[in-house]
Amino acid sequence: MKDSRYDDLIEATTKRGAANSASLFRKSVVDRRTFLQGAAFLGACGGLMGFGLTGCTPANTGGAAAQGWKAGTYSANVTGHNAPFTVDVTFSENAITAIDTSTNQESLGVGASALEDLSNKIMEYQTLNVDSVTGATLSSMSLQQGVKDCAEQANAAKTLAKAPGPDDSVESSYNADVCVVGGGGAGLTAAISAVQAGANVVVVEKCGITGGSTNVSEGALNAVDPERQQKQGIEDSVEQFYEVTYEGGHEQGTPELIHYLTDNALDSVHWLESLGVKFKDETGSATGSLGERSHYPATPSGNTYIRAFEAFAADHADQLVVLHETQAKELILENGSVAGLTAVHRGSQEITVNAKSIVVATGGFGANVEYRQQVNDGVWADVKLDDTIGCTNIKPCAQGEGLKLAEGAGAELIGLSDIQLHPCGTPGTGLMEDIRTSGRNRIFVNKSGERFVNEGAERDTLCKAIFAQPESTYWIVVNKVRYPSETEPDANGATIENMLALGHIVKGETVEDLAEQTQMDATKLQASIDGYNQVVAGATEDPFGFKANNTADRQLTEGPWYACRKVPTVHHTMGGIRINVNTEAVSADGEVVPGLYACGECTGGIHGSNRLGGNAIADCITFGRQAGMQAAQHATS
């Protein structure tokens, strides 16, 4: 069944202007002096929010046309992407003075950032004419409708509808040492690493938000960490990490790249900590991670990393500019070396970024249905990866344009058929939301209530087992061990209470009650739970191979019980731009493309034909740091 929430993520048109931080620079060339001018302006306006301005005073207060406004605070109930919420707007006799969306349950870094950004713009310009944020369209529309409804109650709608919106134009030309294409987890890591190496950096990001698909991840980062793991009684080693990554990718990954990842992942954890990220004291296990080495932020969301990156950008605005709603079109080459790129802002304004180094960090192509079908001759060749199978990523952020950019400059593309499906897709959308498959203390059962797979297996193993079940679907079943409180928000801001209200999950006080509501066989469901509990207790071996060897495992005995239906969904594309350990783009004949670097999901060769859970963030940060440093050294040498 098609879910209307998917509309939020399938709209790829560019609607929102560049981040206000970009429009600060009113010269046609950005140099260190201009960066410093921008930093001063940012300080006056209170800093960055998602690389945009907050705290500026309204530009249109006191307008004469505001006669007849009814001062007061008005409310409107709206439906967001994740759950309904209330928009409260306070009016004076001639201005909007406050917008409150604090009851929202939107995703951090995506919908929540869009609400804050648009609220700031509406108040700054005293207008209803603000464009939706690409990548968070449904959240944007809910805020716009709520403010409009409140304005009508205050007799202010006609005036606000006539007021002009913000000027989101940018400059026609920028100079930088390094230009990063893509403002997701890998791209922002590369940008920060380049700044730390002394470079001026311009980031071009096609969406209206930064963070990309990292924003909607749980933030799991695999690394061998003796300090944490030994306290938990976990035996691990870098060599073991390498082996499971290589073997988990069906021995198709490039050994040199895997070694670089596993050798340097812990340094990436420490690097993030140096930026202010706080991790949980214990490591865990992401879905399909094949080990207890997944580091989770204290708030288990990839947006935790993005917030730290935003804070760094605010402190280094003299060296780092982000241009939102800016689509890179073509790399500029001079004598075979990269010299910059051309781009289009908001679909019409052409700009040029001159840079000696380019880092491509545009993410994967999992949401590009046409392209993924063209290259799907690998492990999922028997599965039609059409639009009946969703994608976990934000669609505008996962189209694969970076592959075309790099290929046009001479880089080779490898492993394109290596597409990963994830077992945690929401029917109708493919998004990873509601109850998640990662962690412990849950069982997977088919429509009859029977367990059918080792819940800790690799992702491709899990998805193949799911496709073999009736209607290619299954239920995750958990109880109060996993969710002791129905009102406590999870990593994405959702609660059991809201998931129940929206009809996304089913609740039963007893196993029999849950079985009745999900139309499962109560006897089979109880037998599945009992069998799992015996494995956890050490009384028997699991016929599917699940091993309860972690102190976090608990027997599932008491209600309330919750069930959430799931399907396989496209999650990650392991193929892409060929790179070496210096993240230099490499051509088919083995030669590097001078000045061209790549990192993150747009690269190939690291994960083989199956990526382990928790290795994507490790990849983005580890190779992003390397790409930024190498690009800066090339540009400034």
Automatic annotation (TrEMBL):
EC number(s) stated in the UniProt entry for this protein: 1.3.99.33
Cofactors, names only: FAD; FMN
Pfam families linked to this entry: FAD_binding_2 (PF00890), FMN_bind (PF04205)
InterPro entries reported for this sequence: FAD-dep_OxRdtase_2_FAD-bd, FAD-oxidoreductase_2, FAD/NAD-bd_sf, Flavocytochrome_c, FMN-bd, Succ_DH/fumarate_Rdtase_cat_sf, TAT_signal
Cofactor info, note text: Binds 1 FAD per subunit.
One GO cellular component term noted in the UniProt record for this chain: membrane
Domain FMN-binding per the UniProt entry, residue ranges: 80-154
Catalysed conversion reaction: dihydrourocanate + A = urocanate + AH2
Alphabetical UniProt keywords: FAD, Flavoprotein, Oxidoreductase
GO MF annotation terms: FMN binding; steroid dehydrogenase activity, acting on the CH-CH group of donors
NCBIfam families xrefs: flavo_cyto_c
PANTHER family, per the entry: FAD-DEPENDENT OXIDOREDUCTASE 2 FAD BINDING DOMAIN-CONTAINING PROTEIN (PTHR43400:SF7), FUMARATE REDUCTASE (PTHR43400)
Membership in a protein family: Belongs to the FAD-dependent oxidoreductase 2 family. FRD/SDH subfamily.
Stated name of the protein: Urocanate reductase
The species this protein was found in: Eggerthella lenta (Eubacterium lentum)
